[in-house]
Specification:
The protein is mostly helical. The protein has helices at about 1-25, 25-35, 40-65, 70-90, 95-105, 110-145, 145-170, 180-195, 200-225, 235-245, 260-270, 275-290, 295-300, 310-320. Helix 3 (about 40-65) runs antiparallel to helix 9, helix 4 crosses helix 13 (about 295-300) and helix 6 (about 110-145) crosses helix 10 (about 235-245).
Length: about 325
């Protein structure tokens, strides 16, 4: 089943990219790619790698809420390993699953390793949606398309509202504890409440998450300016978060294809030509993938790689029972 899902995602990514390449002037896309400044691209890769300790610091706040302990150095290595498996390999085992495995091998309980990574991912998504909330008044003026802005606002409202409801009523999941799935949900609800209802935890968690997506918007800006495109940082700060939100929809490999389509639409509101916006998105994706390459070295040099990816997959499936 996992292999089938992987093949479907690869098909979606390849199909969307093929459709866009067919619709655009491929020579125009190539010309824009060749215009990119190597120094800008190198800076984007370096900054992306430098964000790994920040990501690890956010994750460690959640880990400590479980009662577990990890040092920042090993946690940063695990985050980079996760980057590698998420971006650089079309694997049936994703970066989050490998990070869970690494945390388990480093001494966390299996359920804590799984729940902490999942909650870290959810908090990042909430931070992205909150950044969208902050930008909505200016986004409406910049886009000038009420329908597009209303859809974006509705998605944000559903996402934040749904998570808030889960935090508020998560205790009700204990009534389902007679079933395995109910026990898993109850454990996750306990961790979510302990994390999100504690100001000393939730404030830095959301600040790091929002700041991370501001940086991501800045990276897109750096790539665009390195291609001599006329676009401002404020435009990227308004238009890139919806692109990133679209790219987390789990229908493609690491967002490829979905991100490119969303970037073409979003940057089009800033007057960027479709071929140029497509090139920006491709270069952004390649830079993010390159930032994951150090993770491969950490994986090979660590004790975590003693387990095969098949073992990682089995761990992911059974962790909730431990």
């Amino acid at each position: 089943m996992r292999i089938l899902k992987l093949l479907l995602k690869m098909g979606v990514s390849a199909g969307l990219i093929a459709i866009m390449l067919h619709a655009f002037d491929m020579k125009g896309v190539a010309d824009h790619l060749l215009k990119a400044s190597p120094w800008s691209l190198a800076a984007v890769v370096v900054i992306s790698i430098a964000m790994a300790p920040v990501h690890a610091a956010r994750w460690l706040i959640v880990v400590r809420a479980t009662g577990g302990r990890l040092a920042l150095g090993p946690a940063t290595q695990m985050v980079l390993i996760g980057y590698f498996f998420s971006q650089a390999l079309p694997s049936a085992v994703g970066g989050d699953a490998v990070r869970m495995w690494c945390a388990y091998r480093a001494g966390l309980r299996a359920s804590d390793a799984v729940n902490s990574v999942v909650l870290d991912r959810v908090i990042a998504l909430v931070g992205l949606m909150l950044l969208g909330v902050l930008s909505l008044p200016w986004l409406s003026d910049r886009v000038g398309n009420a329908t597009a802005v209303n859809v974006f606002a509705a998605v944000i409202a559903l996402g934040i509202g749904g998570f808030a409801a889960f935090i508020a009523f998560g205790g009700a999941t204990k009534a389902l504890s007679r079933w395995r799935a109910g026990r898993l949900l109850a454990r996750f609800a306990d961790l979510a409440q302990a994390t999100m209802l504690t100001p000393a935890r939730v404030v830095p968690l959301l600040a790091i998450s929002i700041g991370g997506f501001v940086v991501a918007s800045g990276l897109v800006y750096m790539i665009a300016r390195g291609m001599a495109l006329e676009i401002g940082f404020s435009d990227c700060l308004l238009l890139v978060p919806p692109v990133l939100l679209a790219s987390v929809i789990p229908v493609s490999i690491a967002g490829w294809g979905v991100r490119e389509g969303a970037m073409v639409v979003a940057l089009g509101f800033a007057g960027v030509a479709p071929a140029a916006a497509f090139a920006v998105s491709v270069l952004y994706g390649l830079c993010v993938a390159a930032a994951g390459l150090p993770g491969s070295l950490f994986w090979l040099a660590s004790d975590y790689s003693a387990g095969t990816l098949a073992e990682v997959e089995r761990f992911e499936k059974s962790a909730g029972e431990r």
